[in-house]
Amino acid sequence: MKIIISNTSDSPLYQQIKDQIKDAIFKEALVEGDSLPSIRSFANDLKVSVLTIRRVYEELEQEGFVTSQVGIGTFVSTGNLEMLRDSKRRLVEQKMQDMIQTAKSLNISKCELNAMMDILYEED
């Protein structure tokens, strides 16, 4: 798993790491049962505090993306697939809200925006 963190980002380090792990789960680069690195080794690899990684793992567990087993490790958990799907939808909705606000500020009509979205969606 490749995690890229930026000291110049507005997002805190733990949020950057957490978002990238969630993204890997969404894209199925990490699947049910995959183990995440130990807190200590992950912190060493990323050159961040173990407290940062502990916070990432704790929040991911609270959100249902991973499960931790004391003395064994932390594993990807997709048991609640509906929650994962809902998280994906929320992510897209947030990005769409940004897009809509930008379009409105530039006086781009809903019809024009839909046409642009149709073209871009079909390109991939």
Strand numbers in spatial order across the main sheet: 1-3-2
What's the pLDDT, averaged over the residues? 91
Main sheet characteristics: 3 strands, antiparallel
Helical content (DSSP H or I, runs of 4+): 55-70%
- As for the CATH topology of the largest domain, it is Arc Repressor Mutant, subunit A
What is the molecular shape?
elongated
The topology string of helices and strands comes to: HEHHEEHH
**What is the total number of structural domains?**
2
Q: Look at the structure and name the CATH superfamily of the largest domain.
A: Winged helix-like DNA-binding domain superfamily/Winged helix DNA-binding domain
Provide the structure class.
mainly alpha
Radius of gyration: 18 Å
Number of strands: 3
CATH-derived architecture of the largest domain: Orthogonal Bundle
Polypeptide structure, described:
The protein has 124 residues and is mainly α. The protein folds into two domains: 13-76, Arc Repressor Mutant, subunit A (Orthogonal Bundle); 81-123. Helices cover 60% and strands 8% of the residues. It has five helices and three strands, in the order H-E-H-H-E-E-H-H. The protein has helices at residues 13-26, 39-46, 50-62, 81-105, 110-123, and strands at residues 35-36, 66-69, 73-76. A three-stranded antiparallel sheet has the order 1-3-2. The longest helix is centred in the C-terminal third of the chain and has 25 residues, at 81-105. This is Transcriptional regulator, GntR family. It holds the Pfam family GntR. It comes from Paenibacillus aquistagni. One of its GO terms (molecular function) is DNA binding. Residues 11-79 form the HTH gntR-type domain.
